[in-house]
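@channel anyone free to eyeball this complex?
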Amino acid sequence: MSAESLCRRMRLNLFLSFSKKGDCMNEIITTIENRRSVRVYKPEPIQDDMLQSIIRSGLNAPSAANQQSWHLTVIRTREIIDRLSDDIKQTLRGSPEKHNQAYGNSSTFHVFYNAPVVILVSGDESSYLPMADCSAAIQNMLLAAESFGIGSCWIGLAAMHFTDTSKNGDFGIPATHKLYFAVTFGYPEGRKPLAPARREGTVNFL
Amino acid sequence: MNEVISAIHSRRSVRRYRAEQIKDEELEEIIAAGLYAPSAVNQQSWHFTIIRDKEKIDSLAANVKGLLHEHKNEHVRGYAKIEKFHVFYNAPAVVIVSLDNKALNSLADCSAAIQNMLLAAESLGIGSCWIGMTSVYFTDTSHNAEFGIPEDFQPRFAVCFGYPAAEKGKAPARRAGTVNYL
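replying in thread with the prediction:
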C-alpha cells in the first residue's frame, strides 16, 4: 500500500471497546475517508472513459422507491462554465447575506474553481425524496472520481441562481426538475490537506 | 474497473438477513465511513443511533408498522397488511439517522453519510437497506429521549445492516434520459 492510499483517519474515541489502528480495512473505506473537496484544479480535461464511469456511478445510487429522481447536466465547455459562474456571482451580489455578497464581489472567486468539468444535479420535485436521491448520487460520483485520482467539490451556491425552474431550458434541465447542486471535477493541483476533525458526540449506542 | 467502482455498482438493498450480529470492528468501519462524508460548510449535521438489541429493534419495527395502516400512500399501507413484514427485515443492526434542522442542508449531509455507510458495508460483505418509513413514527422529536437522540435533531431515516441471507438480484434498469451534455 502506498503512502497516498494509507487511511488518514484520525483516532476516533467515540466508539466501541477495541482500539483503532491507523489503517482502514480496505480500499473502499480508505477512499471514503481520504476524499477531500478539491478547490484548485489543473486545466486539463478529464478522460472521457473516467467521466462516463463517474456518471454511471451517480446513476447507480439507490433512490427512494427506485424513482431515480435525478437529472445530470454535464458541462465541459469552458465558456459555458465561466458564464454560469459569472451569472451566479451576479445573483450572489444581490443576496441579503454578507458572505454571499463577498463571494459575488470577489474578482478571483470562481464558483466552480475553474474546474474543467461541472455536473449540474437537479431533482424531480414530484418524487418522494429527490434531495436524498441526488445526494446519494453525488456521493457516489465523488467517490468514483477519488478512485481515479480526480478531485471534486460539491457546490451548493449554484442553487441560489436557480430559485425557480425558469432557467432550466437554457441548460436542458427538464421543467419538472429543480437544480439543487453542482459538482466540479478535475485533476487536483497541490496536496490534499487532512480532513477536519469529526464532531464529537454524534453517535450513541442503545 | 477498480474496487470502489465495483462496490458502487454491485451494491443492492438487502432485505433478507442472517441472524448473526456483525462484528464490532465492521460496525465501527461503517460508522466511521458515515462520519467522513462531506457536509455543507463542514457542519457534519448528522446524529447516528446504533441499535443492536433485538428486542429494541423489534419493538421499533412494530411501532412503525402499526402506523403504516394510516399512511397516505396505498403502496405503503400494503406493507402493514403483510403479516411477515418487518420494517428492518429482521436485520441484527439498525442505525437511526437524525437530521439537525438548524443546519444548512442536513438532508443532503445525512444522505451522503448514509451512502458512505452503504458502500463501506458492501465492501465488507455486509448487506444494508436504507429505510424511509420510520419517519411515520418519528413525526416530531417526542421519541428522541428514549433513543438518546439530542432533542434538536429529527430522526429521518434508518439503515439496517447484517450478513445477507440470499443472493443479490440484478439492479433495476436505469431510467433513460437522465443525463444531458452541454
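from a first look: Chain A has six helices and five strands.
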